[in-house]
Predict the 3D structure of the following.
Amino acid sequence: MSDLNDPRVFFAAGRTLFAWNRTSLVLMAFGFAIEWFGLFVHILLPEYDALLQRGLSFRTGLIFVLSGAFVAAYSTVRYRTDPGVISNLIVAILGIVLTVYFFRGV
């Protein structure tokens, strides 16, 4: 069992937190790409509007962005390191801002 005062434990928690941060950013970027690709197809092929239904890509992208924001917020609570908390909170807030942007675009 490791000692909690050991700096290696602190640095390992920081590395884990930043790994979760990267994961949350990828989830949000993927959701953003899905949503905008649906919009691009909708603009490119308006005659197939009934078949494509941009709403599905919007909802799927929104789920990815919200899950990325949730992962960032949860990992902030789980692995508390000073620089990691700040960066993860920024990522979570930006994920929520991106979600609001999606809803304003509809």
Q: What stands out?
A: Helices lie at 7-44, 49-52, 54-78, 82-105.
